[in-house]
Amino acid sequence: MMMKDVFRPTKSAPSSPAKPLGISRTRSESFHAIHKVPVGDSPYVRAKNVQLVEKDPERAIPLFWSAINAGDRVDSALKDMAIVMKQQDRAEEAIEAIKSLRVRCSDQAQESLDNILLDLYKRCGRLDDQIALLKHKLFLIQKGLAFNGKRTKTARSQGKKFQVSVEQEATRLLGNLGWALMQRDNFVEAEDAYRRALSIAPDNNKMCNLGICLMRQGRIDEAKETLRRVKPAVVDGPRGVDSHLKAYERAQQMLSDLGSEMMRRGGDDRVEQRKLFDAMFGSSSIWQPQPCREQSVKAKPKPSNDGYGDENVKTNVNVVNNPLRVDAKPFFSSKLISNSEKLKRTRSLKVFQDITLSSLSPRA
């Protein structure tokens, strides 16, 4: 990390001039409200107009660059440009843009930029970067430095704001970490991540992934016991019926298939059990984690491509154009580095006390 990133003075996000009170909305302003485009003729407004009204993302990208260079709503311009780049299959460019330009953004924007970078890392298959950042975010939660020392933060999804608690963020990050570690075939650490997530809050999909981790290690009896603990769907559950129903049905199917094959072949050799599981279940059995979502959205669910429920999200939420994403090397402001002892610490949770510094220490 460059020194200028670490010791950059704190600054607030630039914004367009506020409209005087008491002035009625014009037809032009109504148009901007409908298309969710800001009012005015600044570089950022022109870029948003090309992106959302003219629907020309390729032409919008250089306009976002112009807005950043002009210092016009830099926070929003950089985030929007990175998202558009990702949509245009230019994820690697988006990563480099965020890394080189985030120093111009406010401290308030850094967490959102990290979230976008996490998603970009996942898109590009940069699992090591993704894992390192997830561990660092968990380390900050353990130290009480996440959310600027507050218990909750305000997130936005599909134009709506909602509150996310430290506990919810921890379970989401642990689920993401477990999934990424499974892609690296690191089932021992993935098991630990899922167990810590489940110690904070129950989750059927995480329970199924934990069962897969145990199976991959040849611990069939433990895997069976874990999968038996997956509960049936609850109508008013936090993720909706569909997600938990798929998790429950998948767990029962895995138990049935595994039991039948073990009975047919016999034997308790763990090496043979792992080979058996590898042949029976592929990576498609693993639920992919998704960004945190508002729990009150009631949109009709879209069918999942792999037939399994997502790990960290209600499946009855449209996942297209999600602005709340996850992943990237963390940003440190001078406030965090030089005055870390003065930051307000969150009230420690017992579960976070169990998270060792060695397992969650940030990347060197």
Question: What do you see in this structure?
Answer:
This protein is mainly alpha-helical and 364 residues long. The protein is 54% helix and 3% strand. It has a two-stranded antiparallel sheet.
Key terms for this structure?
single chain, 364 residues, mainly alpha, Serine Threonine Protein Phosphatase 5, Tetratricopeptide repeat, 2 domains, two-stranded antiparallel sheet, 2 strands, disordered N terminus, nucleus
Tell me how many strands there are.
2
Number of helices in the DSSP assignment: 17
Q: Which strand-content bin applies to the residues?
A: under 5%
CATH-wise, what's the superfamily of the largest domain? Answer: Tetratricopeptide repeat domain
The total tally of domains equals: 2
- CATH class term of the largest domain: Mainly Alpha
The percent range for helix content is 40-55%
Query: Which parts are unreliable, with pLDDT below 50 for 5 consecutive residues or more?
Result: 1-9, 291-310, 312-358
- Rounded to the nearest angstrom, the radius of gyration is 23 Å
Ends apart, CA distance between termini: 10 Å
Q: What general outline do the C-alpha atoms trace?
A: elongated
Give the mean pLDDT: 72
The SSE order reads: HHHHHHHHEEHHHHHHHHH
Spatial strand sequence of the major β-sheet: 1-2
Structure classification: mainly alpha
CATH topology of the largest domain: Serine Threonine Protein Phosphatase 5, Tetratricopeptide repeat
Subcellular location: Nucleus
Region (Disordered): 1-25, 290-313
Keywords: Coiled coil, Nucleus, Repeat, TPR repeat
TPR repeats: 171-204
